[in-house]
Specification:
The complex is a heterodimer of chains A (550) and B (430).
Chain A (H helix, E strand, L loop, with lengths): L2 E4 L2 E4 L6 H7 L23 E4 L6 E2 L10 E3 L3 H16 L15 H9 L18 E2 L4 E3 L9 H9 L5 E4 L6 E4 L12 H5 L5 E3 L11 E7 L8 E7 L11 E6 L12 H4 L14 E4 L2 E4 L2 H18 L5 E5 L5 H14 L5 E3 L21 H6 L7 H9 L5 E4 L4 H5 L1 H9 L3 E6 L11 E4 L8 E4 L4 E5 L12 H11 L9 H11 L8 H4 L4 E2 L5 H15 L1
Parallel strand pairs in A: 1-5, 16-17, 16-18, 18-19, 19-20
Antiparallel strand pairs in A: 1-2, 3-4, 3-5, 6-7, 7-10, 8-9, 11-12, 12-13, 14-15, 14-20, 21-22, 22-23
Chain B lengths: L17 H6 L4 H9 L2 H10 L12 H5 L10 E7 L8 H8 L1 H15 L1 E8 L4 H16 L4 E4 L4 E9 L9 H8 L23 E5 H5 L1 H7 L1 H7 L7 E8 L5 E6 L4 H8 L9 E5 L8 E2 L9 H6 L8 E6 L4 H15 L5 H18 L5 H14 L7 H15 L1 H10 L15
Parallel strand pairs in B: 1-2, 1-5, 2-4, 6-10
Antiparallel strand pairs in B: 3-4, 6-7, 8-9, 8-10
The complex binds flavin mononucleotide, iron/sulfur cluster (SF4) (3 copies) and FE2/S2 (inorganic) cluster.
Chain lengths: 550, 430
């Protein structure tokens, strides 16, 4: 492990650490543009130049690996001059159109200019004209090449990470320009990441462009619910200027670094899959009378729902109510459901039903299971029977009531089969965040909060339990699923008293072997694998697969 | 004149033919090397010879070869740099066109010494004639068994492939050349790793200039010591100097390393054309710092020119007489570097273009006195701060013209034109 000195401070680092990383550990910020820890070293921007003892020339910190005895000067006035010079070079042909640039506020040119620039500009010539001004280069990204500083991060991303090779640097000298290879467009499953890594306003997100100035955004750490990979994300919410985007609250999602899950990246499906949070939401508890829906107060509706369920049990028996839990629910919500349906009501007809069929997968992030918490549901042992069994029992007239958690049976079974099934049911309860064809046919509709509107945890495909945080208040009168169950339970005369999701998780970790020893504190920001290495769950998954084959 | 070793066949009839080559001692060195010498012994001779690369940097050839990994897990390639893009340089072209077998024999000896069985020759895109003649010679060599399988019955195999560039100056920089040879855009690579460790297609690679390799037959023939004695201290052998510009007899001159610049211009080059006065000399291709007329008492070798604040570089000597407008000369130079920068590094990409625009404005009579400060600061911020030596090469003329000829620049700015005693501006830029 080499020991070196940077600005007079000594540090010992792992072999393979570069000077930027070592300086960072000492609290010394060496600026960089082309360097990205997830990409190969290009060494082209030269903003990271530092001086080193015994080296006649300045060296670039991004490419230089720490070696024993190095003495590095990362902050002296001479080094400052090197940075100023590079910044001036980068800015001479830059349009400086910050007032109309979507990157303003999170632009590395602006930031470094304020920190290391502040020189007297000497440039007095015509700027170079480039070809792409606000030109879409694919479904997700717009290119403004005069703002580009040619750091080649985007090119390296498409070469090394997405491996789709759409982007290149064309021409030479100060006419060099980022562009798309002939006949191609930037269309791949990870295209949005180039916007994240572009340090300037050259690549902007077509979805986000001009929706909101970034300084109005607040960021909350979360987990993408788009598939079982559980990519770590940030939810960026516009709280201050709701009129900027027609009242939409979530402005964008950004990947959040997690070495074990998604590194710096996320897929486009996940990135742009947030619209449901503000669109087609169910806002008010409703109850159908004939063909009309009647809005009701939560308390009144849950009171009458409790009576309906009790009446159903009286007329038939406990197993006349089928429960279709969803792997979209958090571990905490599912644990509440387990307590309520399984322990307190003693219902045997419980299954976990994905609201969507399996989808695409690749060998990078994207998983075919489009739910964030399938392994959590299985680890909780919630799949008592298969969904097919429930359908059969409905067809045989044994199940008379069905409690759905967001699933659209018309989409899953086809319209005619779903309607035939519904015809045999006396009570259809739909608890979910968004409207669909099934919610329109249900007898009782309970509006639930989305993942963005509550705290909780998901367990990803590898058995990693990861926390997500509440970014928003639940829209309308919607409530977190666990809270709805708590209130329903109390209407039915049983108690499910928990103060917070953290308290639920504490109980969960005590009573469910697979989760033993975990707590919110121990999960931290990066999450933790299920303590048994996910073995129990792995067995459960196999069991589930056999079930569905039958 | 001193003894010729590189250009001795240039004036023979059909000098490029194998027959001519063989009848003047050709391929005997290679045969001796392959049949009687160990590769390490050849490397040793080359070290002793003080041969220094003629591509511009003057790096010790024997030392470069010894950087190859001792353990050979991958094939080793030899790459011949025949890109010859440095303005004012045209010596490699003479070798390829007048004595191509000298180069091929050099390639053969070198490949044997470094353990390479495949050599690529990367030829400047405009050198169509050189390419044709060299390809003809390669074909002859294959036909007679000097290339191909089991050369001289020793079991040593060698393939030689010629590859034409597409006209980018930067592809003469050795790692841009490798990228280009691999079919990619000519972007110089970050070093380390150096090509001797990771070069062409990820394999250990030695890159040498045409002239460098053409010295090998002589080194084998006479021994490293004798070769070293042909030159001056630390600079073995003779050197081909490309002399161009306002001299009576421009051309390629083979001279002992360290020959005084004054002799090259006045003794060999016949002096300034039309009896005019010398004004300036660029001694090492366009990338070298310019010298004034009173600075030509300097030896044409790496150390002496370095001491004089410039460099031998590619030994392209460009002579300018009193009629030359130095603003114009710098304009041509700046345009070249702005046009040829590969564009990777911020200082080089932006600095060359910026510099050119400022010089252009001064040239057009729209300069301001503070522009001279800009012309001083841009090269300072470019040199030594980039991926490859291109920016250093641009910074040298950039920072020398406006200093050494400041008067002329100031006059251009004050009066918006040249001194009336000079000929009119001739350069039309586009
Ligand atoms: C911008 C630039 C252009 C170059 N062009 C050439 C060239 O045209 N021919 C050449 O032999 N070397 C050229 N070089 C030098 C090569 O990078 C390399 O040093 C040389 O080919 C090594 O061969 P040598 O050791 O035999 O000199 C150039 C270097 C730079 C930085
Ligand atoms: S578009 Fe952005 S990421 Fe790509 S090279 Fe330009 S500045 Fe870098
Ligand atoms: S890979 Fe899955 S978890 Fe990751 S961003 Fe995409 S959909 Fe979301
Ligand atoms: S110094 Fe200039 S030519 Fe060399 S790599 Fe950098 S930009 Fe390209
Ligand atoms: S960050 Fe080191 S050269 Fe760009």
């Amino acid at each position: 492990m080499p020991t070196l000195t940077i600005d007079g401070k000594t540090i010992t680092v792992e072999p393979g650490t570069n000077l930027i990383q070592a300086a960072e550990k000492l609290g010394i910020a060496i600026p960089y543009y082309c360097y990205h820890p997830g990409l190969s070293i290009a060494g082209n921007c030269r903003i990271c130049l530092v001086k080193m003892e015994k080296s006649p020339k300045p060296i670039i910190a991004c490419q230089t690996l720490c070696q024993e005895g190095m003495v590095v000067d990362a902050s002296s006035p001479e080094v400052g001059k090197l940075r100023q010079a590079v910044l001036e070079f980068l800015l001479i042909n830059h349009p400086l159109d910050c007032p109309v640039c979507d990157q303003a506020g999170e632009c590395w040119l602006q930031d470094y200019y304020m920190e290391f620039g502040l020189y007297d500009p000497k440039f007095n010539e015509q700027k170079v004209k480039k070809h792409f001004k606000a030109t879409p280069i694919g479904p997700t990204v717009t290119l403004d090449s005069e703002r580009c500083i040619l750091c080649s991060r985007c090119v390296r991303f498409t070469d090394e990470i997405s491996k789709t090779h759409e982007l290149g640097i064309f021409d030479r000298g100060d006419h060099s320009e980022i562009g798309i290879y002939p006949g191609k467009e930037l269309r791949n499953n990870y295209s949005g990441n180039v916007v994240d890594i572009c340090p300037v306003g050259a690549l902007t997100d077509r979805d986000f462009r001009f929706k909101c100035r970034v300084w109005y955004l607040t960021s909350t750490d979360s987990i993408c619910p788009g598939c079982s990979n559980g990519c770590n994300i940030q939810i960026h919410v516009n709280r201050e200027r709701p009129h900027h985007a027609k009242g939409e609250r979530v402005m964008r999602l950004k990947p959040r670094y997690n070495a074990e899950v998604n590194q710096w990246w996320m897929c486009d499906a996940g990135r742009y899959g947030y619209k449901f949070i503000d669109k087609d939401r169910i806002l008010i508890p409703e109850r159908r009378e004939g063909s009309l829906f009647k809005e009701e107060e939560w308390e009144k509706l849950l009171g009458s729902l409790a009576s309906s369920i009790a009446a159903l049990f009286e007329r038939y028996e406990q197993n006349a109510l089928g429960i279709c839990l969803s792997p979209q629910l958090s571990n905490e919500d599912l644990f509440m459901a387990k307590k309520f349906f399984e322990e307190q009501l003693g219902l045997p007809q419980i299954t976990v039903l994905s609201p969507s069929p399996e989808g695409d997968q690749d060998d990078f992030l994207i998983k075919s299971d489009k739910n964030p918490n399938t392994r959590g549901a299985l680890a909780l042992g919630l799949s008592k029977v298969s969904f097919e069994e429930i359908i059969q029992r409905i067809q045989k007239g044994k199940i008379k009531g069905l409690y759905l958690f967001g699933q659209d049976l018309l989409a899953l079974l086809g319209e005619s089969k779903a309607k035939e099934i519904f015809g045999k049911l006396e009570l259809i309860i739909f608890q979910g965040s968004n409207q669909n064809a099934t919610s329109k046919l249900a007898h009782v509709v309970l509006p639930s909060a989305t993942y963005a509107e509550k705290d909780g945890t998901f367990t990803n495909h590898a058995g990693r339990v990861q926390r997500f945080w509440k970014a928003l208040e639940p829209l309308g009168q919607s409530l977190p699923d666990g809270e709805i169950l708590r209130r329903l339970a109390s209407e039915m005369g049983t108690l499910l008293e928990f103060e917070t999701p953290e308290a639920i998780f504490e109980d969960l970790a005590q009573s469910i072997a697979a989760f033993r020893g975990l707590s919110y504190a121990s999960l931290g920001q990066e999450g933790k694998l299920l303590p048994d290495g996910g073995k129990v769950v792995a067995r459960a998954v196999r069991h589930e697969k056999e079930d569905s084959r039958e | 004149m001193n003894e010729l070793i590189l250009s001795k066949r240039f004036n023979l009839k059909e000098s490029h033919k194998l027959q001519t080559y063989l009848s003047t001692g050709g391929y005997r060195s290679a045969e001796r090397a392959l049949k009687t010498m160990k590769p390490e012994a050849i490397v040793e001779e080359v070290k002793v010879s003080n041969l220094r690369g003629f591509g511009g940097a003057g790096f010790s050839t024997g030392m470069k070869w010894s950087f190859l990994p001792k353990e050979r897990k991958k094939p080793v390639y030899l790459v011949v740099n025949a890109d010859e893009g440095e303005p004012g340089t045209f010596k490699d072209r003479y070798i390829m066109e007048k004595d191509p077998h000298l180069l091929i024999e050099g390639i053969l000896i070198t490949s044997f010494a470094i353990g390479s069985h495949k050599a690529y020759v990367y030829i400047r895109g405009e050198y169509v004639k050189s390419y044709r003649i060299l390809q003809g010679a390669v074909d002859e060599a294959y036909a007679k068994g000097y290339l191909g399988k089991n050369i001289f019955g020793t079991g040593f195999d060698l393939e030689v492939m010629l590859h034409m560039g597409a006209g980018a100056y930067i592809c003469g920089e050795e790692t841009a050349l490798l990228e280009s040879l691999e079919g990619k855009k000519g972007f110089p690579r970050l070093k380390p790793p150096f090509p001797a460790i990771i070069g062409l297609f990820g394999c250990p690679t030695i890159i040498n200039n045409v002239e460098t390799l053409s010295c090998l037959p002589t080194i084998i023939e006479r021994g490293g010591k004798a070769f070293a004695d042909l030159g001056c201290e630390k600079n073995g052998g003779t050197h081909l100097y490309s002399l161009s510009g306002h001299v009576e007899r421009p051309g390629v001159y083979e001279l002992r390393m360290g020959t005084p610049l004054r002799d090259l211009i006045y003794k060999y080059g016949g002096g300034i054309r039309g009896g005019k006065q010398l004004k300036a000399v660029v001694p090492g291709g366009m990338s070298a710092a310019v010298l004034k007329a009173n600075e030509i008492d300097v030896g044409l070798d790496y150390e002496s020119l370095k001491k004089a604040g410039t460099m031998l570089g590619s030994a392209g000597i460009i002579v300018m007489d009193e009629t030359t407008c130095m603003v114009e000369a710098l304009l041509v130079t700046a345009r070249f570097f702005a046009h040829e920068s590969c564009g990777q590094c911020s200082p080089c990409r932006e600095g060359t273009g910026w510099y050119y625009k400022v010089v252009q404005r001064i040239y057009e009579g729209k300069g301001r006195m503070q522009d001279l400060e800009t012309l001083m600061s841009i090269p300072v911020n470019m040199g030594g701060n980039t991926i490859c030596a291109f920016a250093d090469g641009a910074a040298m003329p950039f920072s020398s013209y406006p200093v050494k000829f400041r008067e002329e620049f100031e006059q251009h700015i004050r009066e918006g034109k040249c001194n009336p005693t000079k000929e009119n501006h001739a350069y039309a830029y586009h």
